[in-house]
Amino acid sequence: MKENITLLGLGNLGMPIAEKLLEAGFPLKVWNRTMSKAEPLVNSGAVLAMSPEEAITPGGILITVLADDRVLKNVIFPDVLKRLGSGGLHISVSTISPETSRELYLQHKNLGSQYLAAPIFARPEAIRTKVGNICLSGDEDARIRARGIVAHFAKGIFDFGDEPGAANIVKLAGNFMIGASIEMMAEAFTFAEKNDISRQAIYEMLTQTLFSAPIFQNYGKMVADHNYKPVAFQLPLGLKDINLVLKTSEASSVPMPMADLIRNRFVSAIAKERTNLDWSALAIGASDEAGL
């Protein structure tokens, strides 16, 4: 018999995760601040709860896909955690700080439940086609229990051990590398354009040869075309993530000068009212500075 699952947060990632869990036959309760977003899921068999705590099955599985540390804490403290109780498992898919994961791990442990950090590398279409990658860290039995669930919406499952903040460190490192790759392509394509070479031509050549990885192919097309819609990950969320990178790097005495540069790109883009664009729109900054 499949476990009862509660999913809180039906944003760009929460919605396709819920769809995949329903396809797999899990009993699913959902909650979202904007309740109308849940209608397609209810039509497919999900149960819509009027509050986060109402959605919880004591001793069951809770998956949170919420925007940031503050929202996550506000939603689950204290009623959700108390209701989850003994035997419950909270799988946090959100990109949050390792400090928050460590705090949540202890709070769950005090109430007899378990917390597992499980940030995912995936845009919505990657979840729907199950090609995303997910990182796990927390107690071993929690990691084992979670595997049979996350395997329904992620292809690669990577185990980073018992330390609850470890998976969050990996996610932040990965998002930093994506941001740095976008900046690198923005500068390279702008350099080409200023020298009368088509952005699309250099994109096609480089992403078919030296830089043939999906990150370069997918984000590179957006940068080459200066087309930052549809929005899968909002630009302010990119700033949130890079701020977490810099906060964590400072705490661990790791200089990250490129992260500072990327942060400034995000701040500039927000100042220029580009918040309605995908986070890859940080790339416009290189063209701005080149007078294009």
Automatic annotation (TrEMBL):
<dbReference type="Pfam" id="PF14833">
    <property type="entry name" value="NAD_binding_11"/>
</dbReference>
<dbReference type="InterPro" id="IPR029154">
    <property type="entry name" value="HIBADH-like_NADP-bd"/>
</dbReference>
<feature type="domain" description="3-hydroxyisobutyrate dehydrogenase-like NAD-binding">
    <location>
        <begin position="165"/>
        <end position="282"/>
    </location>
</feature>
<keyword id="KW-0520">NAD</keyword>
<dbReference type="InterPro" id="IPR015815">
    <property type="entry name" value="HIBADH-related"/>
</dbReference>
<dbReference type="Pfam" id="PF03446">
    <property type="entry name" value="NAD_binding_2"/>
</dbReference>
<protein>
    <submittedName>
        <fullName>3-hydroxyisobutyrate dehydrogenase-like beta-hydroxyacid dehydrogenase</fullName>
    </submittedName>
</protein>
<dbReference type="InterPro" id="IPR013328">
    <property type="entry name" value="6PGD_dom2"/>
</dbReference>
<dbReference type="GO" id="GO:0050661">
    <property type="term" value="F:NADP binding"/>
</dbReference>
<dbReference type="InterPro" id="IPR051265">
    <property type="entry name" value="HIBADH-related_NP60_sf"/>
</dbReference>
<dbReference type="InterPro" id="IPR006115">
    <property type="entry name" value="6PGDH_NADP-bd"/>
</dbReference>
<dbReference type="InterPro" id="IPR008927">
    <property type="entry name" value="6-PGluconate_DH-like_C_sf"/>
</dbReference>
<dbReference type="GO" id="GO:0051287">
    <property type="term" value="F:NAD binding"/>
</dbReference>
<keyword id="KW-0560">Oxidoreductase</keyword>
<dbReference type="InterPro" id="IPR036291">
    <property type="entry name" value="NAD(P)-bd_dom_sf"/>
</dbReference>
<dbReference type="GO" id="GO:0016491">
    <property type="term" value="F:oxidoreductase activity"/>
</dbReference>
<feature type="active site">
    <location>
        <position position="171"/>
    </location>
</feature>
<feature type="domain" description="6-phosphogluconate dehydrogenase NADP-binding">
    <location>
        <begin position="4"/>
        <end position="158"/>
    </location>
</feature>
